[in-house]
Amino acid sequence: MTPYSKLQHLAAAIFFNGDKQKRYLAVFGHTAYFDGSGSPDEGNILCVGGYVSTVRDWNEFEVDWSKALKWAKVDAFHMKDFVSCRRQFSNKKWERKELRDEFIEKLVRATKRHVDHSMVAMVRLADWRIVNQEYALEESWLTPYALCGRTCVKMVHDWGDRRGIPRKHIEFFFEYGDRHQDHLRKRMQLDHNFEPNFKPKTDIVPFQACDLSAYESHKAEKKVEAGESISINDFRRSFIALLDIPYEHGIFYEADLRAICESAPIQMREERSS
pTM of the predicted model, to two decimals? Predict the structure, then answer.
């Protein structure tokens, strides 16, 4: 029996509705999924990460990912629950490193087999706060999450442009619930004249892979920020394995944020008050 796939069901429904444009998207179109890691009010880094691939590959990904979940006897993967052994991972068996490593390897293998490209954007929060004191970043809907999400969309568009993929053939989904998603929505309307989709993680399996990607990227950058890492082997095995996927990763420091403000342009606060 073929495992049930919500994504496959959706694609099939679109394919047979007689709309030629949507029929094309169901078979040949691309979808990008993203999740956030970190909070704008605490820590050093906020990160948004995810993947882009064809609808067909995402369908196959969901089947492989679901097999890994079934092997582990869990309904879904949530990185915070996994690392802290909570909820579905509270069983004593999840304290065994061998089991944890094997499970993550299965998830990473499913991801590497079916995604085309990884995109991760990060903001150093202390730098954002410094620049926000001078420029109206927050009032321009360029809060850290919105800035990262906007950058991920640009990365996907640039990736598609290099491959001749029309931008209208790429759909964007962000996991619902992160703070300042209303700012991202407004920036997308302003910059690209479209609105991304925001959906709960329970509705879309690829968000679970994005959760893993964003967490690992966030964790790796924190090691770099702390000056702990001196070579690739100092990073987590799961992060190193994900680097086999073609990727674009970037982080905004103070100079980068100032450059955005000057090129946008974003008003300086003293100009707004005068």
Answer: 0.87
Q: Which two tokens mark 224?
A: 């770099």
C-alpha torsion sign, points 65, 71, 76, 80:
negative
What does the angle CA 266 – CA 198 – CA 103 come to, to the nearest 5 degrees? Answer: 115
Residue 14: predicted pLDDT: 45
Which runs of E-coded beta strand occur in the chain? 30-39, 42-54, 117-124, 170-175, 197-199, 247-252
Least reliable range by pLDDT among 14-28, 69-83, 169-183, 186-200: 14-28
Q: State the pLDDT at residue 4.
A: 37
CATH of the domain at 45: 3.30.420
Cis peptide before 265 (omega within 30 of 0): yes
Please give the C-alpha separations between residue 150 and each of 175, 177, 217, in angstroms, as whole numbers.
Answer: 14, 16, 18
Nearest residue to 25 (alpha-carbon basis) of 16, 34, 17, 14? 14
Does residue 1 belong to any structural domain of this protein?
no
CB 143 within 8 A of CB 5: no
Question: How confident is the model over 93-151, as pLDDT tens digits?
Answer: 999 999 999 999 999 999 999 999 999 999 999 999 999 999 999 999 999 999 999 99
Euclidean distance between CA atoms 203 and 252, whole angstroms: 31
Task: Identify the burial level of 157 via C-beta atoms within 10 angstroms of its C-beta, where 0-12 means exposed, 13-18 middle and 19 or more buried.
Answer: middle
Beta 247-252 vs 170-175: how paired, if at all? unpaired
Is 180 a domain residue? Answer: yes
Q: What span, in angstroms and rounded, lies between the C-alpha atoms of 181 and 199?
A: 11
Report the number of distinct structural domains present in the chain: 1
pLDDT, position 261:
95
For residue 98, give both structure tokens.
């061998």
Range of the domain at 255: 6-273
Residue 165, C-beta contacts closer than 8 angstroms, at least 6 positions apart: 30
